[in-house]
# Entry
Amino acid sequence: MKHRLLATLFFLLLSVNASARETLADNGELASLRQQDQADRQGAIDWTKVAPRDAARLARVKALIREGALRTGSDYENAAWVFQHGDTADDIRMAHALATLAMNLAPEEKRRRWLVAASWDRLLMRQQQPQWYATQFLSDATGMYLYPVAEDAVTDEQRKSMTGLTLAESRARTAEMARNAGVPLRDPAPRIEDLKNDAAKAPKGG
# Structure
């Protein structure tokens, strides 16, 4: 399924040249699905209700890709947001591919650059590897923390270009987010080895 979706996506990219794509209308349904995705992440979140809606939105976006409905940069971006909240590493890979296509069509769009960085970081996190751009924040019983960062993977200049924040600014934002959420800051933040050990000790689902 994943390979068929990717093949369809890149066929669409090749079949519509950049100048023609600028004259096409954005897909209204994809825009609505993205708006619903973001609205579900405002305020207190009941994941027992949001998770099924996420799954339904993702299934619909996959169907729209197969139907050839993604034609513009905004379509790619809107679809990427929905895939970004998928359950599997393959979903996140697709989010990164879509976000990259969107960014390449409008490199000046800060939101698209951020989504490329965030989808890459989330994919690394799924693989229990340190993130590069410092976009992923987590919390557990001991508090909120910035997921471990491979500090030398990219420069702070590159982080700033992609996300608008340096690593130090992202760390400061962690404390601000914890205060705003009314939860403690986990200090010191866990290392990647700590998180891998915690995952190894966690009970496996039956």
Summary: Residues 137-201 form one domain.
